[in-house]
Amino acid sequence: MRTDLKQEFIKRYGKEATETYFSPGRVNLIGEHIDYNGGLVMPCAITFGSYLLVSPNNDNVFRFKSLNFPEQAEVPMHTEHKKTGEVWYNYPVGVIAHFLNDGKELQGLDMLFYGDIPIGSGLSSSASIEVVTAFALNDLFTADYSRLDLVKLSQSVENKFIGVNCGIMDQFAVAFGEKNKALMLNCDTLDYQAVDSNLGDYLLAIINTNKPRKLAESKYNERVEECQTALAALKQELDINHLCDIDAETFKQYKYLITDSVVQGRAKHVVEENDRVKLAAKALSNNNLAEFGRLMYASHQSLRDLYEVSGVELDTVVDYCKTNPDVAGARMTGAGFGGCAIALVKRDAFDKFSKEVTGYYNDKIGYAPSVYASLIGDGVGILKETVKS
Predict the structure, then answer these.
(1) Does the annotation mark 149 as catalytic?
(2) Which residues carry a binding-site annotation?
């Protein structure tokens, strides 16, 4: 039974919420493992995310409750705010601590969170919670942060308070997302372009492999080091700061400087993937979904063979997609080693696709994936309509 979130707030706090905010999750459409190489990524906001209902209190405390997690907390405003274990409310506490450290005037709040992003799927549930909290505080207490300030603040919370060394793409996408637009973001300069992305008869299928992503962090750090090694080799003859400062043609000329074949492969992926993002922007803005789909498949192949961050689970999803005429393209998205794949699927064939990919995956892997349908949605904002959970 679908329950009105406003009624849930009344049930837990005995009063009505004064405001409701929403921040989406995100997927990266193309441009993987580029953010730490100074290149272009192309994320978009999706149509599910994190809801936050609030009501001020006069008790100088922040109360945190969630419909997704059993843990709740009551944190005095005037206390040293520290991370507590691995509980979900570390994210909003970190944001509040940042506001207070910046000297912003806050008041106690009763807060109820609800998210429909699958946890641990790599769709940025943490960035979504951080940004919705920061946006709400900024709105309620007229803190005068710009949207970009909120992005940087949320990334800082993730890096320093939570202790996860992420780039800025996730927070940026959920803050700046626009309906039917992908964001072509330069991770070095933070310049971005909103690219028209009308999916027409297609939607975005998100296929969660449901594989625990145990390898992701250690392998991620390994790839960062390999890219630094490649960059150092190229800098012997090229005046560059990032691998993405060159295109595929230039890389071909100078790749001999990278003597380790594995490291050369890593660099080749990065440089070519950066070029693919530019081609993808052109394809989307020209409404050429067939070409965009081809680039998705090429991206996955490169991530599988050159960058080696895929895995049998993600490959199984993409292999199935290649056999289905209702799919324009598919690829892994995120850090890899589990997490999600995405596919462009005809809307009227989604139910059939979902059933078939689940069966195919179950036969090969031994358990089922989770399959979701999404469109490209708006970034963080205030909601006026009644929200259902």
Answers:
(1) no
(2) 32-35, 66, 120-126, 158, 220
> Domains in the chain, ordered, with CATH?
5-197+377-383 (3.30.230.10), 202-374 (3.30.70.890)
Q: How far apart are CA 138 and CA 156, in angstroms?
A: 16
pLDDT value of residue 1: 31
What is the per-residue burial (b if ≥16 Cβ within 10 Å, else e) of 221-237?
eebeebbebbbebbeee
Which of these is catalytic: 170, 275, 326, 378? 170
Q: Which tokens in the block code for residue 255?
A: 């790749």
| C-alpha atoms less than 13 angstroms from C-alpha of 162 in its C-beta half-sphere | 25
pLDDT at 3: 58
Provide the pLDDT for residue 216.
Answer: 65
The annotated binding site for substrate is made up of 32-35, 220
Residue 133 to residue 128: CA distance in whole angstroms: 9
The pLDDT of residue 2: 44
**Dist CA 314 CA 311 (whole Å):** 6
* Regions in the chain scoring below 50 on pLDDT: 1-2
pLDDT the model gives residue 71: 97
Residue 385 has a pLDDT of 65
Q: What would the two tokens of residue 108 be?
A: 């106690």
Antiparallel, parallel or unpaired: β 327-333 and 202-208: unpaired
Annotated binding site for Mg(2+): 126, 158
